[in-house]
Each structure stands twice: as structure tokens, then as C-alpha cells.
Amino acid sequence: MAMSKHLYQHLETLWQYMQMGHQLTSADVIFVPGSNDTRVAEVAAALYHKGLAPLIVFSGGHGRFTDGIFEHSEAVTFAQVAKDCGVPSDALLLEPRSTNSGENVQFTYELLKKKGIEVRKVILVQKPYMERRAYATFMKQWPGEIESLQVTSTGDNFFDYLTEDLTLDFVLGALIGDFERIQHYPEKGYQIEQPIPPEVEAAYQALKPLAA
């Protein structure tokens, strides 16, 4: 797909908006909703090795992008990546039933409560373009009290994030789709409201036809 400088600027605007820019501090748990990008598990493992939290929770069954692709659930697949990165098994907790973002949050809360693990501070790791959606979903769907939620990702720019499987067309479509969820999911009760600056809305309007 050829992209003009003008469209590229819009792309960068929307891409940056979807990331939270949080500066990470220590937490009780690293929470990782599953997806089709195992690099997210590598980021979680790196944060664990930095000592930012003593426990990683991987959450996810088979989603629409992993059903028939991953041999095992997203949680199990991500856990294996973390183990390959040197994270010990006793630092991992798996929630392999959830099939959407809301369930990721709700089922993980239930699992931690069942295990008697008190959580007040959370680091959530996601794909770059899903950071804001993950934040908005967690803040709406987490049943308990929370002192801090910090969201992070690989932090790549748009084009560095692309791979042979995660193509420009696929990621652009996912970016547009997640922004539309930021727009519309609060009224459905799935997420908290997020402010959308005019330049971000303009970027979305310019890019939307490319994802049709």
C-alpha cells in the first residue's frame, strides 16, 4: 500500500494516541491478555526479569485470530514463550478460558481472588495499538479496587511493528477497529470513556477508507 506523507502523519497520530505512555513502577502482578502476537509475552518476561513484579498472569483461551493457529490456548502459548525467556513456572499463573477482553479481566480477577493473591497495582502488557483499549476495558471490568494500572507494550512505531504475518493491511485494520471500540464501547458498558482530541478524530477519518 502506497502512503503519502500526509497519511503517514495521520497514521503516527492515531498510533501514538492508542499508546498510554506510562512510566512503569513496581507492581503486584504483570497481567497479559492473550493475542496473536507472542512478542507481548517476551515483553512481560523482560519486565519480570527487571523485578517489576513477582508474578505474571497470562489470560486467554482461543480468540478469533488464534483459533486454529495456536496449538494450545493463548495463555499456555504465552506461558511457554515466557519460560523460554527464563521465567520460572512458579512465577506464572494461567487463565485459559477467556475469549474476549472483558473476560480476560474478569476471569483473571476471579483467579487471583481464588488463589488468595491480593492485587492493588497492575502492569498490563498488550500490543501497541491495543494499549488504550486495554486500559479502558480494565478500568471498567475489574471488579475490585485498584491503586494503579500501568499499561505498556513493545513500544514499536507502526512500521517497525509489522511482520510477515502482521502485515500493514492487517495491523491498520486492527488499529482502526480498536479506535472504533474506544469510540463506541463506553456506551455499551464495556469500557470507560476516553478523551479523543480533534487531531486524533481527524486522523481516524483520513485513515478509515484505507481499512475498508
From TrEMBL:
Q: Write down the species.
A: Vibrio fluvialis PG41
Which CDD domains did the record assign? YdcF-like
Q: Report the protein name in the record.
A: DUF218 domain-containing protein
Q: Which InterPro entries match?
A: Cell_Envelope_Assoc (IPR051599), DUF218 (IPR003848), Rossmann-like_a/b/a_fold (IPR014729)
Q: Which residues form the DUF218 domain?
A: 28-145
Q: Which GO terms describe its cellular component?
A: plasma membrane
